Amino acid sequence: VKEIVDVFKQKGIRATPQRLEVYKVLQNQSGHLPVEAIYEKIKDKLPGLSLATVYSILELFRDKKLAGEVWIKSDKVCFESRPDIHHHFYCRACGKISDLDIPGCAALTSKEVAGNLIEDLQGYFYGVCFKCRSGKK
Ligand SMILES: [Zn+2]
Ligand SMILES: [Zn+2]
Known about the structure:
Layout: H1 2-11, H2 17-27, E1 33-34, H3 35-42, H4 51-63, E2 68-73, E3 76-80, E4 87-91, E5 97-100, E6 112-113, E7 116-117, E8 124-127, H5 130-133
Parallel strand pairs: 4-8
Antiparallel strand pairs: 1-3, 2-3, 4-5, 6-7
Helix pairs in contact: 2-3, 2-4, 3-4
One zinc ion binds next to helix 5.
């Protein structure tokens, strides 16, 4: 926990119990979690916590580059511990979201294109993942 407090301090974030728990959930998993799932994991530990609070904490983390926000499923926003620019793949068979690292795409970031300032870049790819293709679940 001491290390997390230090990370927060570097980013100018005050360490509250709620923020610490949300951050721990993100660090302890490698995938992409819907906001509701993060809330479910910690709500028993933090009485009075609301889903809206979890969401605003995650938005703060995203703005401070402590987390990434993923919109691949239009009805369900997910968050992950990786704040760096990368793309995502959604398997329509099993519903799993995975990272897709495509070299070169990241070079486009923080540029101005036709007067538009690019602040974020995320490619969403849809299909069938390698596990489902090989028949394994
Ligand atoms: Zn799959
Ligand atoms: Zn990702």
